[in-house]
Amino acid sequence: MSFRTTRSSHPVLLDDVRGAQKMLSGVARTTAMEGSRHLSRLVGAPVHLKCENLQRTGSFKLRGAYVRISCLRPEERAAGVVAASAGNHAQGVALASTLLGVRSTVFMPVGAPLPKIAATREYGADVRLHGQVVDETLAAAERYAHETGAVLIHPFDHPDVIAGQGTVGLEILEQCPEVRTIVVGVGGGGLAAGIAVAVKALRPDVRIVGVQAEGAAAYPSSLRAGRPLSVPCAPTMADGIKVGRPGDVTFPLVAELVDEVRTVSEDALSSALLLCLERAKLVVEPAGASPVAALLTSPETFQGPVVAVLSGGNVDPLLMQRILRHGMAAAGRYLSLRLRLTDRPGALATLLGVLSLADANVLDVGHVRTDPRLGLTEVEVELHLETKGPEHCEEVAAALREAGYTVLP
Asked: In whole angstroms, what is the distance from residue 240 CA to residue 318 CA?
């Protein structure tokens, strides 16, 4: 049962979002808004970070889950709720259910990160591992709902969920009333739709830009077609916005109220995550860093003040390690080289001396001696170096050339 009282062709209205905000009082945090000097310099206008990564459970998902479950009828609550998720939605549903005294069952993929599984259990859910991908997990949750009568809590495609996520938009207007552009990651579209409903009703002049990963971008083609389309999803580090089809409820709201949906590369996502960690001291998952990736990709196209919504911070430490390495490489902080040396004592030491003078830190050295392309007295050396950025990479390469070394393609 929804709390909506206003009749309209729109599934979600400003009054719904305001009602959700009252419902979430004392439950969801009003998350911080942090300025970013680095991004402000790039954009040429103030840039603020809306830190939903610091929300309870580590993402905005608690907002929509709590509102949705709060609106259930008593008999629906008694039957319990069920959800399918690889992480953020799982934790949001688990905590919301526990706070409301409702039994929750959450299906998660077999390969879900252990920290996310543990957190979901600690928030009070009965976690069941099923399937290798979220589609298989969702099918299991739907069967469970059919067999038991439990209410399936959709991660984005329900008016109450959208209204709950829209409270982020109300907070943005309260914290940064001068905002001109809001940038937000888009998966199924619940957060973007909710923010757009709230913001456009109060400030129709504010431009709202959605961001998707290039490999999982269902909205651009769907918007061109005028209807939700399913697209194949390539692997992406931004699993939180990896959704192959826009929602039936979210799509018309995004189509009408979101001004533009852009895509960003994997390199941009990893660079954005690294920037959030290094410059803002914020742990942000790749999906949550997608708005920052868009700002890094085309900073001159955003009118400020800009608010970038960091939607979540739940990232597995092992994945974080890999992403940081990828981000450092994308930012020119790693340099890989291959060159040939005369296979004699001291040749490698001489090479390392040149690199030392160039202030490059050697991370790894590999030797190849048995390759038909090599001469009888040659050895190929592969080097992985830590550098200070793209300009330093050029300086290191120049130092090697000046010392008489030929860098192989």
From this structure: 16
Residues 246-304: tens digit of each pLDDT: 999 999 999 999 999 999 999 899 889 989 988 899 999 999 999 999 999 999 999 98
Residue 234 banded pLDDT, cuts 50, 70, 90 = confident
Lowest-confidence pick of 335-344, 350-359, 396-405: 335-344
Asked if the model's pLDDT at residue 17 lies above 80, the reply is yes
Range 41-45 average pLDDT: 97
* pLDDT range class, residue 100, cuts 50, 70, 90: very high
Phi, psi of 265 (to 5 degrees): -85, 170
Structure tokens at 239: 């699993």
**What 3-state class would DSSP assign to 52?**
helix
Cα gap 20→18, rounded to integer Å: 5
DSSP 247: -
Q: 157-173 burial string, b = 16+ CB within 10 Å, else e?
A: bbbbbbbbbbbbbbbbb
Give the number of other Cβ atoms within 10 Å of residue 120's Cβ: 28
61 catalytic per annotation:
yes
pTM of the model: 0.83
Of 93, 91, 89, residue with least CA distance to 119: 91
Q: Report the distance separating Cα 407 and Cα 90, nearest Å.
A: 50
The radius of gyration of the chain's CA atoms, rounded to the nearest angstrom, is 25
Residue 346: is it exposed, middle or buried by C-beta count within 10 angstroms (0-12/13-18/19+)? exposed
- Tally the C-alpha atoms within 13 A of residue 204's C-alpha that lie toward its C-beta: 2
Give strand pairing partners of 49.
34, 308
Per annotation, catalytic residue among 36, 85, 270, 311: 311
Confidence of residue 4 (pLDDT cuts 50, 70, 90): very low
From the candidates 61, 116, 200, 242, give the one annotated as an active-site residue: 61
Beta bridge partners of 390: none
Half-sphere exposure of 133 (CA within 13 A, CB side): 8
Is the alpha carbon torsion for 151, 67, 165, 284 positive or negative?
negative
- Quickly tell me which residue has 């953020």 as its tokens: 88
| Paired tokens of 43 | 């954009």
Alpha-carbon distance of 192 to 79, in angstroms, equals: 31
Q: What is the 3-state secondary structure (H, E, C) of 291-320?
A: HHHHHHHCHHHCCCCEEEEECECCCCHHHH
Contact 195, 309 (CB under 8 A): yes
